[in-house]
Amino acid sequence: MTTLVFPSSTPAGRDYIRDALRRGEPVLAASSLAHDAIAAEADWHRLPSIHDDGFDAALDALIAAHGVTRLYAPVTLVYAYLRDYLARTGRRDLAFVRRAPFYEAIEAQAVEARDAPALTAFARRVAEPGTADHLQPAHIAGILRHAFGVFGESYTDKLTALIGVLQSVPAGDAVEIGALFGRSTAVLLQALNLTDRANPVLVVDAWHGQTAVQTSLPPALAAAAIDMDWSLVADSFDVNMVPLARPGRFNRLRLPSAEAFARYARDRRVTSDLFGTTAYSGRIAFLHIDANHDYDAVAQDRDLWTSRLVPGAWVVFDDYAWSHGGGPGRAADEFCAALGARLARSFYAGGALFVRLADR
Ligand SMILES: C[S@@+](CC[C@H](N)C(=O)[O-])C[C@H]1O[C@@H](n2cnc3c(N)ncnc32)[C@H](O)[C@@H]1O
Question: Where do the TM regions start and end (predicted)?
C-alpha cells in the first residue's frame, strides 16, 4: 500500500509525506523539480511534467518499480491530469487516497453551508430576544471557520452560543480568564465586531505550567500541564489574535488570574508591545471563566472577577458539566444561587453554563 505524492514540492504534499512517515506508512515523493528539499526526508524521484510526452511512461515505470497503489496529487491541475489518466488507462490497481485541497475546500464549504442555518437559529434562540436577528449563516460559519483554525478546547455549540449572547452585551469590559491558543477569544473578538459597540476585551492567562496544574486530577493527568513549552502557547495566542484585535480595544495579561485581577482593579490601562495600550472601565459586561478547573480556582476566579459585573452582564462558566471533576459546576451553581433575584436567566450549551444578570 505505497502512496505516491506528486508533486511533493507543495506544502500540502510535504505535510502528507511527513504525516505518513510519522505513521510508518510507505510513501514515495515525486516532483518535476531538479532538486526537491523533501528528498532529505523521503524517498524522492523526479518525474517529468504532466505536459511532457514521456510523463505517462515515467509514471507507469515508477508505479511498477515501487508497488504504488495510492495517489495523492495536491495540485489541482495535476489531480485533474491523473484523474483523466486513471479513466484513460482503466487501471484498477490505483486510486486516489484523497482529493486535491481545492476540492476539499469546496467540500468543507458545502458541509459548513449545510450546518450553518441550524447553528444560526440556535444562536438567535439563545440570544436576548431580538438582538441577534441580524446574524446570518455566513456570520456563524465564518466565525467558526476562523476559530477552528486555532487549536482550542471550546467546540461548536458553546462557540455558537457565545456568538449569540455576545450580540447583547451591555457597555463595559469583556474579560476572558483562560485562553490557551485563543480559540474562544477568536470568537469573542469576531462576535463583538458584529455589534455596534466597542467593548474593550481583556484576556488573562498565565501560560505557565505550575499555574495550570489541576490538583483535583490524578497526578499523571495533572502533570500533563507542566510537560510543555507554555511560552510557545503564549506566543501562538498573540499571533492568532493579531489579525482580529482592534487597536486600543484588546489586550492580554500574562499573569495568574488573581494577580491579573489585582492589576485590573488598581490600574485600568493595560499596555503590551504588540497590542499597545487599552483603557478599560473596570466594569465587566461579559466574563468567560475557563482557566484552572479545580473548585478552589474556579471559585476564586468567580469571586474576584464577578465583583465587577454590570447589570445585564453575561457570565459563562466553561465545563459546567466536566467529565473530569465537579469544580466548575459547583462554583457556577453557587454563583446562581447567590444571585437570587439578580439572575435573569441561565442556559446550558456545549458543556458551559451561560448566566445573564438582571438589568437592574
Ligand atoms: C481550558 S484552557 C482555555 C481554553 C480556551 N478558552 C479555548 O477556547 O480553547 C485553560 C487555560 O487557562 C490557563 N490557566 C489555568 N489556570 C490559570 C490561572 N490561575 N490564571 C490564569 N490562567 C490560568 C491555562 O494556562 C490555559 O491556557
Answer: none
Residue 200 φ then ψ, to 5°: -70, 140
The pLDDT value recorded for residue 214 is: 79
The yes/no answer on whether domain 115-357 falls in CATH 3.40.50.150 is yes
261 lines ligand 1 (CB under 6 A): no
Distance 64 CA to ligand 1 centre (A): 53
Tell me the three cell numbers of residue 244.
482580529
Encode pLDDT of 172-221 as tens digits: 999 999 999 999 999 999 999 999 999 999 999 999 988 888 788 888 88
- The long-range contacts involving 334-340, CB below 8 angstroms and separated by at least 24 positions, are 334/299, 334/302, 335/302, 335/306
Q: Which of 185, 187, 211, 289 to mutate to test the pocket of ligand 1 (most atoms within 8 A of CB)?
A: 211
Q: What's the CA gap between 189 and 250, in Å, rounded?
A: 9
| Nearest of 172, 171, 203 to residue 189 by alpha carbon | 203
Low-confidence residues in the chain, pLDDT < 50: none
The per-residue pLDDT for 322 is 87
Query: Is any ligand 1 atom within 6 A of the Cβ of residue 259?
Result: no
The CA 294 to ligand 1 mean position distance, Å, reads 12
What is the average pLDDT score of the chain?
Answer: 96
Query: Over the stretch 261-315, which tens digit does the pLDDT of each residue have?
Result: 999 999 999 999 999 999 999 999 999 999 999 999 999 999 999 999 999 999 9
Q: Where are the domains of the chain?
A: 2-99, 115-357
Which residue's alpha carbon is at the smallest distance from atom 25 of ligand 1? 207
Ligand 1 contact, 183 CB (< 6 A): yes
Which fold is adopted by the domain 2-99?
Rossmann fold (3.40.50)
pLDDT confidence of residue 171: 97
Neighbour tally for 232: CB within 10 Å = 11
Instruction: Please name the residue that has the C-alpha cell 523533501.
Output: 38
